[in-house]
Every structure is written in C-alpha cells, then in structure tokens.
Amino acid sequence: MPEATATTTLPVVERTISAVFAEEQQIDGVVRRLIERGIDKEHISVLGRNFQSETRITGFISKRDIILGGLRSGAIFGSLFGSFLSLLTGVGVLLVPFVGPIVAAGPIGAILLGATSGAIAGSAGAGLVSVLAALGMPEEQAALYQTRLEAGEFMMMLEVPADRVGEYQLLLESAGGKDIHVNDAPLPRAAGECNSPEDLSPEIRTHLSPAAQQLFVESYSEAFKTTNDKAQSEATAWDKIHQRFDEDEQGVWSKEKMVV
Q: pLDDT digits over 193-208, tens only?
C-alpha cells in the first residue's frame, strides 16, 4: 500500500495579544523569535514613530499617498528598512490623528487606512483610540497605548490560536512587553472580492469619481479572478485608473484623459 502523506493544518487564529515595548531592539528581537516559531508574518502588526532605517526616508509620505499608491507588501517601504520591518507585510507611513506620523506594518496598517468596512472604517479618521475601541479593546487600554506611542514607544499586535495565548503572552513578557492585553478575536480583514463601488473602502472611494470607481471595481475583479491576490489586484486597478484619469483640484481621480 502507498505510504500515507501527512498534511499540515494551519492553526486558526482566534485571539489578538497586544503589548507595548520601550525599545526598537526589543520589537526586532521578538518579531524574529515569533517567525522562527512558525507564526505567519500576516498575523504580526507593529506600530511606532521612531523606527531607525539603514536607508533614511527622504521627505514624507502622507496617508493619502499610501491610499493612492496602495498599502502592499514591500511596495513602498519594504526595501528601505534594514530591520525586521522588511519581514512584515504592508509597511507604510500613516498620519494618525493625535499621534502624528507613524510606521505601520501588518494588518493594522490596512485597518488604519479604512480598508475594512463598518464601524472600524468609520472610526479610522478619529484617532488610534477609536480604532482600537472598535476592535473590542477597552477605551482606557486603548488610550494608554496611544499615549505610549506618542511618547515614542512601540506597539505590537499578535494574532494566535486561543489555546496558545498563555505561551505567547509569556514570550512577549520575556522580551520586554508591557501593558499586555488579550482581545477575544483576530483583527478583521477586508474581503478579497470587490463586486461594486460599495465594496470599496471609504478612503479609496472618496478619491475616485463614480466612473473611476466603476473602472476600479471592474479592473480589480478581473485581476482577482486570475491572481486571487488582493494586493496585486489593487495595484492593477490603480494602474488602470492612472492610465485613464487625472486628478482634479480636490485630489479626486475624475478627469478623463484625451485619447489620441
């Protein structure tokens, strides 16, 4: 009889552990330890203001620049950082109300951009406290995290299976993590499919005219059917927008280009 082939079932993440770290070196070390233990980088989020880079960023990229360019793995800042940030997904610089410019890596970056729908997207422009509270964190804890970020410290959010919360909580504590909080749900993700302009995040929709919204949806959907990759499909859609439209004075892609 043929030998049975073992299959590996990936663990389902059911909890989010949050912690703050005083030093970037602590974050660097714990990210590398987590990846060595098999935690998928898609489940690690980091926020901070004072990251150092082997290659300095010239100028400043705003929240709007990230929206129009797409927050996708390595596309904007991945190659600029010599630290652990190059290991994570969706690295970008965002303007967060009451905190200022921060580096965001992992799924929390997409949430801050309003890439998910409902209450979280609606709160994304009201500051980090509102976003974290919409994710289920007590407001006092969220306010503490925002204060620590304002002071130059760093925040990590780690999604793990429910039966391994204690193990990873101890790991974060041993690495210097403080003010640890466990939320009884993983971070939300935007749906992969986009079937109508209503499926676009409010942040993206407000920068597109109705005609541009329709083109974005059609281009995204066509690319997603082929690639099943959200980031690549989004990049394709933005390329189509840039080919057909120019921005107006309000930063909305609404002016159709003349076809010669």
A: 778 887 776 667 778 8
What number does CATH give the domain 197-256?
Answer: 1.10.1740.70
Strands of the 44-48 sheet, one edge to the other: 92-96, 100-105, 44-48, 154-160, 15-21, 178-183
Structure tokens at 197: 């302009």
Q: Are 19 and 136 in contact (CB under 8 A)?
A: no
pTM of the predicted model over 0.90: no
* Distance (Å, whole) CA 132 – CA 204: 21
Q: How far apart are CA 77 and CA 57, in angstroms?
A: 9
Structure tokens, 196: 């109508």
Strands 44-48 and 100-105: antiparallel
pLDDT tens sequence across 5-44:
443 445 688 899 999 999 988 998 999 899 888 888 889 9
Q: Could you give the residue range(s) of every CATH 1.10.1740.70 domain in the chain?
A: 197-256
